[in-house]
């Protein structure tokens, strides 16, 4: 594991990363999902794609990477671009899981591999809509500690900065970006995924021209057990 400090918009980010197969000329960048780290991507794909250099990155605020400012997904992508330039690396392929899929899409790589990616807004259930309405009514009168009562399990143990980031990115709709995506795109999805449902993947597939869509056994983290099949599928297309 290594760290590289980069500066973006007057803020310094210490980014933790790891390289495998460093003798290979072409690189795959792996981006994890929300609340996760590079370790889960390495666990899944570390023994796959031996013909490529692997770059596993902790996105700012996750794993061992730092963050101080409240940012949006577009800024995450900008920071990753600065990081890649600092390493003199231009990935041929970018993998992105969940939140990392949004960042991967904005990087506009030649080959894009999305794993149960976020980016398509899913209609909220009546229960959640009532919860949001109640929160908005009580917010002016409640202490900050009261906010967490209404928060999801995703925010447990989260810093205030990351909580504010989550509130920003959770409602981002990247439909327009998917529609204009020029990458050779492969979408893999867990059939039992409830975090980013299969319908989101199907919608994304319909938006990304020429994309390939694969529904696989498993939940939101289906790729941990399906990595070899994903490697085989990409290999059939020459990647």
Main traits of this protein?
239 residues; single chain; alpha/beta; AB_hydrolase_1; 2 domains; 2-succinyl-6-hydroxy-2,4-cyclohexadiene-1-carboxylate synthase activity; Rossmann fold
Written description of the protein model:
Pfam families: Abhydrolase_6. Keywords: Hydrolase, Lyase. 37% of the residues lie in helices and 21% in strands. It has 239 residues and is α/β, with parallel strands linked by helices. It folds into two domains: 185 residues, 3-Layer(aba) Sandwich (Rossmann fold), CATH 3.40.50.1820; 49 residues, no CATH class. An eight-stranded mixed beta sheet has the order 1-2-4-3-5-6-7-8, sandwiched between helices. The protein is globular, with a radius of gyration of 18 Å.
Provide a compact summary of the structure.
By secondary structure, this protein is of the alpha/beta class. It is built from nine helices and eight strands.
Distance between the termini: 26 Å
Our count of helices gives 9
The biggest beta sheet is recorded as: 8 strands, mixed
> What fraction, in percent, of the residue positions are helical?
25-40%
Strand tally, please?
8
Order of helices and strands: EEEHEHEHEHHHHEHEH
Rounded mean pLDDT is 90
Q: Numbering strands along the chain, what is their spatial order in the largest sheet?
A: 1-2-4-3-5-6-7-8
- Under CATH at level 1, the class of the largest domain stands as Alpha Beta
Which band does the percent of strand residues land in?
A: 15-25%
SSE-based structural type = alpha/beta
CATH-assigned homologous superfamily of the largest domain: Alpha/Beta hydrolase fold, catalytic domain
Which CATH-level-2 architecture of the largest domain? 3-Layer(aba) Sandwich
How many distinct domains?
2
